[in-house]
Every structure is written in C-alpha cells, then in structure tokens.
C-alpha cells in the first residue's frame, strides 16, 4: 500500500517537473510581451503577428498580454529572470532602467531598408537612451488642445493667459472652461506651463534645466507660470478636478462639462464617438515669449539581450516597424506615425490631426527631452503630483513647491555629472 | 522475527517518518519558494541601496533606508491615517456585519440565494471595486452626487475625492461596503456552532431574547470574534487596493495609509525604502498581534 503511494508522488513530481521544459519541435518559438494592453490593441497586434508568421514560416510567436496596471512590473520580473522572453514593449520611462541592467539587445540599423523610412524623430528616439538603438518606436504621443467651438470662442487660445481668460468666460453654473488634471500626472501640466514661461532660455535636450544649467524652477517666470496654473484651476476648472486623472479629464470634455482639454491624440477617437459635435483642435498654448515646450511620449518594440533566437527576434521587431505594419498600428491606436510614408496618408493630415502638422511646422513648438535618465526621475513623478495637489488645495505655496523642485533637480544634476 | 519486534517497529516508524517527510516536501518547497524566500529577500533589500534605476550596484547601507523613511513627514501622516482607516472601517464593518449575520440566521425563502448575493463583493478585486467607487463618488458626474441632489439633500455637488475630509470618508465608506460581508460570513458560521439546546434551556428558564444573546450567544462565539477581528485588522491595514485606485493617496496625501505609501516607494523605484516600510509594517503588526492576543486571552481567563 505504501509503494503505490510513493510511486504516485514520484510520478506527480515528474509530471510537474516535465511541464517546465515544454515540447521541442523544429520550429522557432518567440515569446513577446506587451505593456499598454487594451483589448482592441491586442487584437491588432495579434493580426500583425499572424501576418509575420505567414511571411516567415517556421517562426511562431506567442503574445503575452498582462493587464495594463501591472504590465511593466510583470515585464520587469520576467527580465530579472533573464529567461523565456524575446521581444518586448519598451516605454520611454522603462527604456533607461531596462538598458542599464543589460536586458535589451542593440538592434541593427544597417542592412534593413525600414530604417531609412523612419521619420527623423523616430530615428532620434530609437537611439535616445544610451546612444544605441535599443528599441524602435511604434508611434508617438503628443498633446494637443481640444476645444468647443460652440461655447463662444471664435479662435483657440494661443497662450496660457488666453486660455485662462477664455476659460473664465466659459465658466458658468455647471459648465467649466478647462479639464484640469489635479490627480495622477498633474505635475506634468505644471511643468509644461513653467517650461513655456521660461521661453528660449530652456535647454530642450534636458528640459528641466536652462541653458545656463540652473533649473527651470528657479526663475521668476516659473513662479509666474505656477501662479497662473493655480488661477486656471480655481477660476476655470471644476473643483472636483483636484483628483482628476486621464479618464475624468476626457469624460469632463466629452460629457460637456468642460470646454477645453489638453490631451494625447488617442482622445480624438473618444471625442468623435461622444455626443460632442462642435469641436476642434489646436497646438498647445504658448508662454509670454511665444514658446511652447512638450516632450513627446513614445513606446516601441525591443529585443532581449538573452534571447535564444536573437535573429528571429530582431526580424519581428523590424517587421512591426516597417511602413505597412507601423501605419496600421498608428491608425488603430491614434498615434503619430513613425513612417515617412504616413505623411501622404489622408488620415494624418485632416481634421483633428491637422493641429499636429501645424505644431510640427512651427519652430516655436519645441519637442523636449525630459530628464528620465536621472536617478530621481521616478521619485519625482510620485512626489511632484502630490506637491501639485498640496498647492491647489492651499497646503503649500507656489514658492515652497518651486523651492523644493529646484533643490531636488539641482541635487540630481550633481549626481549625474 | 518475533524477538526483534521493537527494532522492527522503530525501523517502521523511521521509514514512515521519512515517507511523511517526502510527502510534505513539495508543500514545504512551495511555501519556502513562494512565501519565505520573497519575504527574506524583501527584508534583505531593506538594508541595501536597491534602486530600480541601477541594479548593477546594490551595496548594503545598514539602517539608511529606515532613517530616510522615518524622517519623512509623509510616513507619519500615513501612519496616522492608517489608524483612522483601520479603526473606523473595522467598527462599522463589525457591527453591520454582525447585524447582517443575525438577520441571515433566520429561515426565510430564498435565503441561500440571498446569502450568495450578499457575499458577492468579497469575491471581487479591490482595484475593481475602487474604480467603481471612484466613478460613483466623482464630484462632477458621479451617481452619488446625482442622487443626493435629486433627493434635495444637497444644493451643490460635493467633490468627494477632491476634499481631504470627504476623501477619507469616501474610501472608508467603500471599504465598509466591501468588508461587511466578510464579517457576516464568519459570524454566521460562528453562530451556527452555538448548540440549539442551550437556547431551549435558556427560554425554559425564562430568559428574554436579549438576555439569550448576551449570555448564551456572545460567550460562545467570543473566541471566534476575537480572532476574526484580529485577522480583519491585519487585512484592512494591508489593503491599499481600494485607496490606491480611488484617490492614489490624494488629495496631497490625505488618504495615504502606510501600505499606499509603500506602493509609492515601489513606483518611485526605491525598493530598498519600500522594503524598509514593509519591515516596519511587519513589526507593527507583530507587536499589535501579541498585545491583542494577550489582552483577549486575559479577558477569557476572567
């Protein structure tokens, strides 16, 4: 009676152990993980993968789609084991730590026709971290101003001061001028205004610093900007927006509570599907000296340094980054495309997208690089949002906030140089 | 053979012991690998400079992380908030759960179905519940404001998640809703363990309903109650999900509890500090549990 039990235990152990090793046929099996998961997007990626498999018989791709909120943590965990992953989605703020830790493979740019088809911006961003192409962006996010055309505004505000004045006029009763962001990500908007107010003194390559190496938070212009930021909240925005993040801001605009919204192109789709009909877009407002600065958000595909099939992994990344696939992906996700050929595509030169072209052609709408490669970046994103909430609820003053941000980044500058 | 009875018996037990150990092994390995290893690793990280930004150099720094955490005002704010969060949530969850359990004890039609519905929230993810409540409490388009307005109870919308006092109230309300069912389940199970004949004897002696409850029901389920309350205190403290998805600790840290503070350290990339906060929470709970168990035992001995 004892022996069969033992035998069963052994058998179970063997079966459990066997599960890990998987079946080994002659095929190459790539494992790929995405980060910004959403049902529609996953469907689109799967379709692109199917096209890839068809074009490359003998390669099979397995896609892992972790839920959005915990995706980057999960990717990190897998990377730490250095196993069983070939292709991955790298985001602008994960690129540095992934490459620092040696998890990303350098992607070849020569001998691939697709490289020369990438826009200048895409090529620049591909090598932004560490000077080597650790990822190929699949598209860009950039903010634009969405505004109601039926709420008494003849033209969109060109400056933050005009936005404030226009917003004040719109604010009556249950209606407000501006979809303010006070919750997660709110500090980003404060930084955007502060940058605009600093004007051409700012160093776009290290956008939290001026050309004279002091921080953007140290100037009187910064204080001016932040004062106006608070006024925009108090006089033109819903009081509830202290806690608003992305979904509430968008909901505010699409449900007709607010008249202006500054957001990414993916919102175009949401607004089109909402009941709001009279609306348009414009480039983001500028500061008093006529400059506007904003970073361009991006994410892309990369290959792991420990992949057992490096050649095939690179092939998949290149396939996804070629004109046909990347334009389809940009269209499906409302992204600014990476392919030069997209400029001829009517979807990207009409309607709501026109504001992006306009911004691209304006030399005073400057794209910046945020100091994501400084050790304190992640900490700052957490702390600064909290400071902004303290500021607009009156727990901190403009001077206090700017002083602490200035101290933080002065200290960071010392750590990097 | 018969003379060697004792040694044979010993050999048998030895073999048996080995067999038992072998059978326990998979379980032990699992627990060691998935519970104790991460725990110990986390504890070690608390004494290292372990920042996600650069994992190639993670030197030991002694109590540096603890010093940094304890020097932060936010930590102490979070600790104070944790007190409010746990105590207020617990009191309401306990009494409402108790009441619900007493109601569900009686026999009525559809009781099984009703029980299942009541217990449903307990099966849902905390993050999901947080998202639902976040929209319901929204100051501009939330259903709670709409209802209050239509009922004429308020004249102006309340920014529930935007004003510090209201934000704490809101997350606690959501937590109470979520936790009542746990108490209801556990207390109902405890109630069913009270022998029926005790009530019969009590009613023969002429005890009123209230006296029966006080002198029969309560003493019987008290040990269970003590344990449930302890478990619940630990769980509420370790339950940042709701707060995190409703307010993210805001506005300006007014709903931060110690575990959302910990999450923020993780997101900030500083695993060392996060580990330190984790150890502090562990120490706090351990001290509390010892104190609490001693206190309740004392009561029982009386």
TrEMBL record, chain A:
- Signal peptide range equals none
Domain of life, source organism: Bacteria
Q: Gene3D superfamilies, per this entry?
A: Periplasmic binding protein-like II
In terms of Pfam families, this protein maps to: SBP_bac_1
- Protein name listed in UniProt: Sugar ABC transporter substrate-binding protein
Species source reads Nonomuraea longispora
UniProt lineage: Bacteria, Bacillati, Actinomycetota, Actinomycetes, Streptosporangiales
């Amino acid at each position: 009676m004892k022996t069969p039990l033992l035998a069963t235990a052994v058998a179970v152990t063997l079966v459990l152990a066997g599960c890990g090793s998987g079946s080994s046929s002659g095929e190459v099996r790539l494992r790929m993980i995405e980060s910004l998961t959403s049902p529609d997007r996953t469907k689109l990626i799967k379709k692109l993968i199917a096209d890839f498999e068809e074009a490359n018989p003998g390669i099979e791709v397995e896609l892992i789609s972790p839920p959005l909120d915990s995706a980057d943590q999960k990717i990190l965990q897998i990377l730490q084991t250095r196993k069983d992953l070939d292709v991955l989605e790298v985001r602008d703020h994960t690129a540095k730590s992934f490459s620092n830790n040696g998890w990303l493979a350098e992607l070849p740019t020569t001998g691939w026709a697709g490289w020369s088809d990438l826009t200048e911006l895409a090529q620049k961003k591909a090598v932004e971290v560490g000077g080597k192409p650790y990822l190929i962006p699949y598209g860009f996010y950039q903010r634009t101003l969405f505004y109601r055309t039926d709420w008494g505004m003849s033209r969109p505000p060109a400056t933050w001061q005009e936005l404030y004045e226009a917003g004040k006029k719109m604010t009556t009763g249950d209606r407000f001028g501006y979809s303010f962001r006070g919750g997660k990500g709110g500090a980003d908007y404060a930084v955007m205004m502060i940058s605009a107010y600093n004007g051409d003194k700012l160093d776009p390559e290290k956008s939290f610093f001026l050309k004279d190496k002091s921080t953007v938070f140290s100037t009187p212009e910064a204080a001016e900007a932040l004062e106006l930021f608070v006024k925009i909240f108090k006089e033109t925005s819903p009081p509830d927006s202290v806690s608003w993040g992305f979904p509430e801001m968008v909901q505010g605009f699409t449900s007709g509570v607010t008249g202006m919204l500054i957001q990414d192109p993916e919102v175009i789709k949401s607004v089109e599907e909402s009941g709001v009909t009279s609306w348009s877009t414009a480039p983001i407002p500028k500061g008093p000296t006529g400059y506007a600065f904003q970073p361009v958000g991006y994410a892309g595909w990369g290959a792991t340094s420990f992949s057992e099939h490096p050649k095939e992994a690179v092939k998949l990344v290149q396939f996804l980054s070629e004109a046909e696939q990347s334009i389809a992906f940009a269209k499906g996700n409302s992204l600014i495309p990476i392919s030069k050929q997209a400029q001829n595509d009517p979807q990207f030169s009409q309607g709501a997208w026109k504001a992006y072209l306009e911004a691209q052609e304006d030399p005073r709408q400057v794209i910046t690089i945020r100091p994501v490669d400084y050790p304190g970046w992640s900490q700052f994103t957490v702390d600064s949002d909290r400071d902004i909430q303290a500021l607009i609820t009156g727990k901190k003053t403009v001077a206090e906030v700017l002083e602490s941000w200035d101290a933080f980044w002065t200290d960071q500058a010392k750590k990097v140089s | 053979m018969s003379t060697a009875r004792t040694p044979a018996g010993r050999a048998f037990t030895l073999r048996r012991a080995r067999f038992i150990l072998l059978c326990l092994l998979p379980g032990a390995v699992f627990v060691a690998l998935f519970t104790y290893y991460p725990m110990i690793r986390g504890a070690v990280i608390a004494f290292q400079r372990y920042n996600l930004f650069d994992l190639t150099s993670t030197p030991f720094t002694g109590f540096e992380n603890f010093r940094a955490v304890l020097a932060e005002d936010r930590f102490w704010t979070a600790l104070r908030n944790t007190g409010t969060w746990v105590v207020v949530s617990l009191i309401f969850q306990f009494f409402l759960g108790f009441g619900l359990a007493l109601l569900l004890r009686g026999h009525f039609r559809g009781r099984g179905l009703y029980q299942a519905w009541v217990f449903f929230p307990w099966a849902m993810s905390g993050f999901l519940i947080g998202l639902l409540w976040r929209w319901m409490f929204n100051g501009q388009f939330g259903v709670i404001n709409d209802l209050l307005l239509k009922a004429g109870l308020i004249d102006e919308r309340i920014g529930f998640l935007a004003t510090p006092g209201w934000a704490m109230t809101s997350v606690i309300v959501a937590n109470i809703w979520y936790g009542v069912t746990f108490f209801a389940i556990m207390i109902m199970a405890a109630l069913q363990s009270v022998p029926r004949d005790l009530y019969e004897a009590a009613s023969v002696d002429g005890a009123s309903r209230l006296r029966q409850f006080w002198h029969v029901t309560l003493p019987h389920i008290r040990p269970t109650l003590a344990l449930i309350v302890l478990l619940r205190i630990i769980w509420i403290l370790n339950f940042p999900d709701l707060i995190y998805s409703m307010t993210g600790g805001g506005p300006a840290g007014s709903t931060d509890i110690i575990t959302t503070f910990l999450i923020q350290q993780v997101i900030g990339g500083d695993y060392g500090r996060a580990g330190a906060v984790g150890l502090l929470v562990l120490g706090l709970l351990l001290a509390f549990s010892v104190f609490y168990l001693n206190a309740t035992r004392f009561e029982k001995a009386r």
